[in-house]
């Protein structure tokens, strides 16, 4: 993948995975920054993973303040904690059975392919659910990278406007979790199975702002190098300056096992917005 020569003017925005509430927090913090005079949507590169892929597509086609206003509209309670807990239990079992990240991806991919066929009604239902989340379905002119994992080879994949893949399909694949989403004759699983932030894809950019709803945590052993700290170290070794802004401890109840509870989207967005306003001065100095 081509990366720019490092220059003081190149800036990358990294939007990590984090479920429904993570997506709301991302919209909130970006809107809080925007309303404080810091427009991070002007990044030369935006990297989106899973919920962050949806957020990347959303901010590419709409004003952050308007997105935020729509996100804080209350949604009736529809908690799905059980499915999240089941997913976490499954992840722990697969991690324990794997020797490294590549083997884990192979196991995750095999598990996804063993589930319902990707050309079942779920395929179209998922695409429709994703497509209504953002208004503009064309790839933006500014560079955007959306991550996924090929379910048949278990190899990471990065989509951009030159990939020949529709933006809706790229987002749907990136946030598909364990579902094998079909694009053409290939099937893909969630981009978070590469790394939950994929900040390392910003190599070559002078300034990298990382917004990780899950705070950079990884379930895998540190030796596998999937955690955000390892990605930041890689970027630093290449000369990039990195700023990470994570949700505060007081908002942890909005994420992790509650990440798919849509009734918590409004408070997650509000928490992100307040945090964006609070950190705007520091982020503005970094962003330039």
Automatic annotation (TrEMBL):
Matches recorded under InterPro entries: Acyl_Trfase/lysoPLipase (IPR016035), PNPLA_dom (IPR002641)
SUPFAM superfamilies in alphabetical order: FabD/lysophospholipase-like
Protein name: NTE family protein
Single GO BP term: lipid metabolic process
Pfam families recorded: Patatin
Ranges annotated as spanning the membrane: 12-34
Domain PNPLA: 13-202
UniProt keyword annotations, A-Z: Lipid metabolism, Membrane, Transmembrane, Transmembrane helix
Organism: Microbacterium saperdae
Gene3D superfamilies: Cytosolic phospholipase A2 catalytic domain
């Amino acid at each position: 993948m081509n990366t720019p020569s490092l220059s003081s003017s190149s800036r990358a925005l990294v939007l990590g995975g984090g479920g429904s509430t993570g997506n709301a927090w991302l919209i909130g913090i970006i809107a809080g920054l925007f309303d404080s005079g810091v427009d991070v949507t002007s990044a030369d590169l935006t990297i989106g993973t899973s919920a962050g892929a949806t957020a990347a597509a959303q901010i590419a086609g709409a004003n952050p303040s308007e997105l935020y206003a729509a996100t804080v509209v209350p949604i009736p309670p529809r908690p799905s904690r059980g499915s999240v807990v089941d997913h976490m239990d499954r992840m722990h079992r697969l991690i324990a059975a794997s020797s490294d990240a590549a083997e884990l991806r192979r196991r995750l991919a095999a598990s996804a392919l063993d589930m319902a066929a990707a050309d079942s009604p779920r395929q179209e239902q998922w695409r429709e659910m994703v497509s209504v989340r953002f208004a503009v379905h064309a790839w933006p002119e500014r560079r955007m990278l959306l991550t996924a994992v090929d379910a048949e080879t278990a190899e990471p994949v990065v989509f951009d406007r030159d990939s020949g893949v529709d933006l809706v399909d790229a987002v749907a694949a990136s946030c598909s979790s364990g579902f094998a989403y079909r694009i053409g004759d290939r099937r893909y699983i969630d981009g978070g199975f590469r790394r939950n932030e994929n900040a390392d894809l910003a190599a070559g950019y002078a300034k990298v702002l990382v917004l990780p709803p899950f705070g950079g945590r990884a379930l895998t052993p540190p030796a596998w190098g999937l955690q955000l700290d390892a990605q930041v170290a890689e970027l630093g070794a290449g000369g990039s300056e990195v700023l990470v802004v994570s949700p505060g401890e007081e908002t942890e109840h909005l994420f992790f096992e509650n990440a798919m509870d849509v009734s918590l989207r409004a408070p997650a967005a509000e928490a992100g917005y307040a945090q964006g306003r609070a950190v705007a001065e520091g982020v503005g100095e970094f962003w330039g």
